[in-house]
Amino acid sequence: MDYIVKNLINDMLRAVEYEREEERERHLSEMKYLSGQEREKKGRAVINLKRKKIGRTISGEYLYQFSRKYNIETEISIGDQVIVSQDNPLDVQNPTGIVYEMTNKSITIAFTKQLRMGNNRPIRMDLSVNDTTYKRMEDALLHLKSPEFSKLNTILSGKYHVSTFEKDIKFKSLNDVQNQAVNLAYNNNGYYSIQGPPGTGKTYTAAHLIKTIVEGGKKVLITADSNAAVDHLIRHCAKLGLDPLRIGNPIRVNNDLKPYTLDYRVVKHALYSEIELLSSELEEVKVTHSHMDKPKPKDTRGHSYTELIELMDKNQASRGISKTTLKYMKPFLKIQKRMDYIYTKIQ
Predict the structure, then answer these.
(1) Burial of 40 (0-12, 13-18, 19+ CB in 10 A)
(2) Which of 64, 66, 198, 302 is the most exposed place for a label (fewest CB within 10 A)?
(3) Contacts 24+ apart (CB under 8 A), 134-138
(4) Using DSSP, how many helices (H) and how many strands (E) does the chain show?
(5) Per-residue confidence at 40, pLDDT binned at 50, 70, 90?
(6) pTM recorded for the entire structure
């Protein structure tokens, strides 16, 4: 690896760590020294909330709506990670979740686990550091050291020479410079960077480039450093008549783009209502199953549940398992059989 590129990557890794620590210290310091009211004035907390459970996401997270009678004014937005608390906001046991939806008087949060807090005391919500973003930046930089990115390393070192091929692409909706950028990016056999100040139409130009590539019969993966940036580009692509598929957690996708998410398309699928009914039944069956006595190892004699179910269906004894023992295990095995069937149907 080029010495200059290696130093550049190490400098950027340090910069990511500095940024992470600075953001973490800022949040922790405010949560330690400022009251909930003071932090709310800064837009990084919301106080006096009550909660209610409102359901689950397609991907299984638990949804809770936190609301109050007067308006919520905050810099917290959809996709942010937040901490909810009723006593000490710095308690490491406090649950964290992702902002799913927002209204003037409520914020809906998605959690991986059910909450164990009631409404007997007001609930506070604090904006938190989302470490996932920083880990992804670090991973990307570390991957850059891999030999498979040697070409990109050459570009970063300034030793890469752009080669172009003639194919004139012209969009009436773009100006000359933007059309030139599309042409150079599309015809260049490798990496190409389009740079410009804010408001010069980089995203708009990128959408036209994507349209050109797609109409050429190829697929495009769109990535960005934030969900908001991806959503912005998706909007432009949709306006140009493309049908993008938004990959990722729908919790972090703006409402106007939810129809483009994979989860939305799953919900709209003809079989989804059947799957939803099966999933609901599975939850009930699992609760019943959890309250039943599991067969003891001395009774199963090394047989799997699948083998025991087959014996039960045939009403046969086998290898040390009498019909009497099988009869005692029958209620459990019938529930297990139903669970196995539902899992198979859902898959």
Answers:
(1) buried
(2) 198
(3) 134/16, 134/17, 134/19, 134/20, 137/16, 137/225, 138/13, 138/16, 138/17
(4) 12, 6
(5) very high
(6) 0.52
